[in-house]
Amino acid sequence: MTWIRTAAVGITVIGLAAGVASLSCSSTTAKTEVAEDPIAHGARIVFTSGCVDCHTPGTFYGMPDTTRWLSGSELGWQGPWGVTFPRNLTPDMETGIGKWTEAQIVTAIREGRRPDGTPLLPPMPWPMYSHLTDKEAYAVAAYLKTIPPVVHDVPKVVPPGAKSDRPMLVFPPPPEWDGRNLPPPPAAAANPGH
What we know:
- The structure is a single chain.
- 40% of the residues lie in helices and 5% in strands.
- The longest helix is centred in the N-terminal third of the chain and has 31 residues, at 2-32.
- It is globular and about 50 Å long.
- The model is unreliable at 189-194 (pLDDT under 50).
- It has one domain (38-179).
- Strands 2-1-3 form a three-stranded mixed beta sheet, with no helix packed on it.
- The protein contains seven helices and three strands, in the order αααββαααβα.
- By secondary structure, the protein is mainly α.
């Protein structure tokens, strides 16, 4: 009977030790988790979501110009929507998004609409960004408000069928199978300056 008591005491002690260790680990984890600064969080999302790729000059050539960070590009994107150019995302008041509120930036990111209601044209992947949480989208907006403003008036949208002499990436028409059920391309913005 002694060995049974010894075994029962041993199992109880091991169970208690495991419980204490479990509580200790969860308490340590809870204490060491620190909320990420919203600006740093927004910067991380901007880097990982491809914003820098399109909106920083030189990135597609392997030489991003960090002096013109997120200031837009003159490399166009041509497709059924015409030719669009990545816009200036810096807080410059005249050529960037400096006059936009954080809420307006979030609407543009997640709903594809500018403050005046005009749509963001392709290839801006706002449908992908529509899945950002409020915390994530507002972190991006907060980060964009903190970067240095850069004066850069990006080329205007070139409507479908019009010619552009600027360098551009060309999207061919969709192949038959892809194009069978695609919706028509978005109309160019009423104000081609956007």
